[in-house]
Design goal:
59% helix, four-stranded mixed β-sheet
């Protein structure tokens, strides 16, 4: 019985060469050569009978002998769903007002984090197009300036145990939200020349904005959930911040920056770009302030300072 050899070629009907992995398998493993027959599948229902027409090193070319029509053998549809957990206590925190609200605001803060991750460096380097700032330290060494954020972030971790014990998660989260407001405002009023101090302050408050939200939030989830659902709760916290929050933050921030910075008329000068960036930072600061006010009004948590 003749051996049938199948290979996956995404564009089998319009290509004449096997993909690199398939070619390696055909030539090195199966030891096929010119004239050997093979069958190709494109993953979209097409089957092709072909033969090897040429081989050069690791490359394998083929010629189509016949296109084999394939009828759909199954008329049904496949649906994949995830069943809810059988243990009701594992989803109890979904029905908990405080935890549900906490996760929602975690997503809102994830938006804030993504804004500076994506646009802090382009903003600072854009000053290089303005003659009076071209030779300033901030423009020439933007990465060094931004690295102050990581230093602040490292030092901010040391403050978390004290602040959580003294003020509780609600006030600590509010501090993080207000720190985001200050970070954006400092960007708006600063520049890499005489106003570089505002950039430095923005980098310093980043440690509070990040740590008092990400690290403290994770500790809060750890404290408020039972052992058997703790991993799931931490996973949801990360998904809301670095998943949904980061995605929404990327899309919304891009819309704002494109409108006020990148989509300016061709004759707009560097100063107009600077003004556009300032408008963006004021918008982001206003967003953070709205989130902070909503959190202060809606999130209910009574902290006992003497508790561990």
């Amino acid at each position: 019985m003749k051996e049938v050899r199948y290979f996956y070629v995404p564009d089998a009907l319009h290509s004449s060469e096997l993909p690199e992995d398939e070619a390696r398998h055909a030539l090195r493993v199966l030891r096929l050569g010119i004239g050997d027959e093979l069958y190709l599948m494109d993953g979209d229902g097409s089957f092709v009978r072909a033969e090897i027409s040429a081989q050069t090193g690791h490359r394998c070319h083929y010629s189509i002998l016949e296109v084999l029509p394939q009828e759909r053998s199954w008329k049904g549809h496949l649906h994949i769903a995830m069943a809810p957990t059988k243990m009701n206590e594992r989803v109890e925190w979904f029905r908990n007002y405080r935890m549900a609200l906490f996760f929602i605001f975690s997503m809102f803060l994830g938006v804030c984090l993504q804004i500076t991750n994506g646009y802090a460096n382009p903003f600072i380097t854009s000053f290089g197009n303005i003659p009076e700032f071209q030779d300033t330290f901030g423009v020439q060494h933007a990465n060094i300036l931004i690295s102050l954020s990581q230093i602040s972030e490292t030092l901010g971790i040391l403050l978390i145990p004290f602040f959580l014990k003294k003020f509780g998660i609600k006030r600590v989260m509010l501090m993080a939200m207000l720190a985001w407001v200050l970070r954006y405002l400092f960007f708006a009023v600063g520049n890499p020349g005489g106003g570089v101090i505002w950039f430095v302050l923005s980098m310093i408050v980043y440690g509070v904005a990040f740590d008092f939200f990400n690290i403290s939030g994770s500790l809060f989830v750890d404290k408020e959930t039972d052992m058997d659902i703790r991993n799931s709760a931490q996973g949801l916290f990360m998904m809301m911040t670095n998943g949904f929050g980061a995605t929404i933050g990327t899309l919304l921030a891009q819309m704002v920056v494109n409108h006020y910075v990148y989509n300016l008329s061709p004759d707009a000068g560097p100063t107009a770009v600077w003004e556009g960036w300032n408008i963006c930072w004021y918008i982001f600061a206003a967003y953070s302030m709205v989130v902070a006010l909503a959190f202060a009004l809606l999130f209910r948590y009574k902290h006992v300072p003497t508790a561990d």
